[in-house]
Structures are given as C-alpha cells and as structure tokens.
Amino acid sequence: MHARNLEPAPARIRLGDDREIVLVRYEPASRSGVVAPTAIEGFVRPIFRRGKQAPRLPRYSRPRMTELSHVDATGKARMVYIGDKAATERVAVAGGQISMQAETLRLIRENQIAKGDVLGVARVAGILAAKRTDELVPLCHQVPLSEVSIEFTPDESLPGFRVRGTARTNGQTGVEMEAIIAVSVSLITLYDMAKGVDKGMTIGDISLLEKRGGKSGDWVRP
C-alpha cells in the first residue's frame, strides 16, 4: 500500500516557544476499486528560528568526567602524567581529632598507658604511613618527602586530642594525601595504644586544612 501526502503545508500547533505539533494527512492509494480510509500522522518537533540558538542544558547537568584528573575521556581511572610539570615546593596540612573519656586523656598525658608512650608511637606511625602513601592509595605518585611533622594538642572540651599533620616536598605533584594519611594513621595508632582502657574512643573530622604551591595555587579551608 502506497501513501501520498495530501497536505503540502502540514498543520502546526504551537506548544510554547520551543516546540510544536505537526499534523500530516495521508490517503492510501486504492487497489481494485477499494479505497482505504484517510490517515493523519502527528509528531512533536523543536522550533528552530534563524539566529536563535537551541536551548542549552544547565552546566550542572552536563557530564564533567574530563574535569576529574584521575579519569580519562572514557571514564576509566588513570594515573595522571606529571612528567612535564616543574618541581616546586609544595606543602599540605591536614587535621583530625579523637574523642575519649576524660580519664583516658589524663592517663595518656601522664604516660600511664600500659603500652607505653602513646603519642610518641602514634607520631612515628603517622610519619611512616605518609612515606608509604603511594602503596595505600592506588593512583598516588611516589613523592620524595622533605618533611613530615605531626602535632598532638590535648583538648579538654572533647575530651581528647586534636591532631595536625604537615607534609612537604619539592616535587612535581602535591602532598595532600600524604598529610591526610599521616593524620589518619596517627589517630588509628593512638586508638590502638589506648584501647585497653577505652574502647569507646571516636576518630573524626579528618580533612585537608590547607595546601600551598602547585598549578592550582594556595588553598585554605574557610
């Protein structure tokens, strides 16, 4: 069955400013003296005016995969190439805290925990962990650290300790992860050293506090 268009100028119904319904009438060709009924087909299409751009999607609705440095154009994880970057001084500072019973805080400060020097062991553990960050976080580069320092500050209001870790390098990539790993492992080690007297300790608020150097420049947590 063949159809022929009987409506050279199809009927249009406007739907707002950007769409319209188009109605087209067809009459199938007859065979053996039998005439088939007329058919009407309709479809919706956008309206494109000369000089007017098609509506654009909001920025947040667009794929932003290529803006993630550890993801390639196809969405696969990758290790970022840094061979063409200049070696510059880069610093990162991270922080965190551990809450405990007031008595546990007293025992640690007075060095009366059975396992020994809680803060000393936790500090060394954090420094060692920072030096092995590339073994713990899959897409991190091996970074030649020039300094890792960890500071514990007792806080009666928690009660517990606030921890601050600093990592420094003269290299081609930043040391944010090294600082965060240093703080994380030092807090975990502190928990391990004192869990014999206080299993209810809580670790939290681990975050990057600031970073300096590199292509993205300086950043400080508001």
Give a quick set of tags describing it:
single chain; 222 residues; alpha+beta; Alpha-Beta Plaits; 2 domains; 5-stranded antiparallel β-sheet; 4-stranded antiparallel β-sheet; 4 helices; 9 strands; 20% helix; elongated
List the uncertain runs: 1-8, 57-66
Can you list the strand order of the major beta sheet?
A: 6-7-5-8-9
**CATH superfamily membership of the largest domain, which one?**
Molybdopterin cofactor biosynthesis C (MoaC) domain
Strand tally, please?
9
**Protein structure class:** alpha+beta
Distance between the termini: 72 Å
CATH architecture of the largest domain: 2-Layer Sandwich
Average pLDDT works out at 83
Number of domains: 2
Q: What percentage of residues falls in helices of 4 or more residues?
A: 10-25%
Order of helical and strand elements? EEEEEHHHEEHEE
CATH topology of the largest domain: Alpha-Beta Plaits
What does this structure look like?
With 222 residues, the chain is of the alpha+beta class. It folds into 2 domains: 7-46; 88-213, Molybdopterin cofactor biosynthesis C (MoaC) domain (Alpha-Beta Plaits, 2-Layer Sandwich). 20% of the residues lie in helices and 33% in strands. The chain contains 4 helices and 9 strands; from the N terminus they run βββββαααββαββ. It has helices at 102-109, 118-131, 133-136, 176-194; strands at 3-5, 11-15, 19-28, 39-46, 88-99, 145-155, 160-171, 202-212, 219-220. The protein has a 5-stranded antiparallel β-sheet with strand order 6-7-5-8-9. Strands 1, 2, 3 and 4 form a 4-stranded antiparallel β-sheet that branches. α2 packs antiparallel against α4 (176-194). The relative contact order is 0.17.
